[in-house]
Structure formats: structure tokens, C-alpha cells
Known about the structure:
Blueprint: E1 12-19, E2 22-27, H1 31-44, E3 48-50, E4 55-56, H2 58-64, E5 69-81, E6 84-93, E7 99-105, E8 113-114, E9 116-119, H3 125-131
Antiparallel strand pairs: 1-2, 1-5, 3-9, 4-8, 5-6, 6-7, 7-9
Amino acid sequence: MVGNICEVFDKASGATVYREGTATRFECGDATFEIILDGFEKMIEGAHPMPAFGVSLDNETRKEMKRGTWVEFEFKDRLFCDGMPFEKLLIYVMAGWQGFNLVRYNSECGYHGRCFYLNIRGDMTQFYNLLNSV
């Protein structure tokens, strides 16, 4: 059980970056993974978890992942935060945004259900640029 969703990312076993539907996977320990994780953790430093604005529908989320820039953090074990389980957390990254949903993935239902939401202190521009340069 994780108390604050911001504390979960150091448990990530890998990350996949999606750019216009093309996926690139980075394993924990790879230099690029460490750059992505560091950039993400800097972006969410001082972030405030908030109630999510909506829920995810698996088929709609998969369709949206074919456009734009996304990052997905994967975990070896199923984790729980606020009573909600997840194996992966998917984030749509958009320059200028000051908050975002963390879409939960579970192997039995995919990207379906309630999300987490983080309100960040700055915006996502620097992290967006980082993901589009790796």
C-alpha cells in the first residue's frame, strides 16, 4: 500500500514512451530510464494529489495513445494507493499543462476505471521536451 501516489515511482521497473503511437521501452537501470524517471520526479516535486476529473475506458484510452506523447511506468508487483490497484500508470504529457491524470492499468481489465490526478507546481513543458528528445 502506498500512502501518496507521488511516492510510487521509485518502485518502477521500466517505462514506455509513446510518441504518435510508436512505443519505446526503457528498463530500470538503463541510462535513459534514469533520465526519464529523474525528469518526472523533478516535475512532480511538491505536487498535490487531487480528485481525478474522470475515469478511463480501456478502448478509448488505447485509441488516444496513438496520438501525442505519453509515458507509462510499469511496476513488478501490483500496488495499491487510496484503495485502487495498479500494475502500470499511464500519463498523457502535454506542454503547458499544470496537472494530469494517472491512468491505472490492471491486467484483468486494462486501462479501465478511476484515475489519480496530480496538480503540479510548474508545468509539463520541460518533461514533454525531455520525452520527445529520448
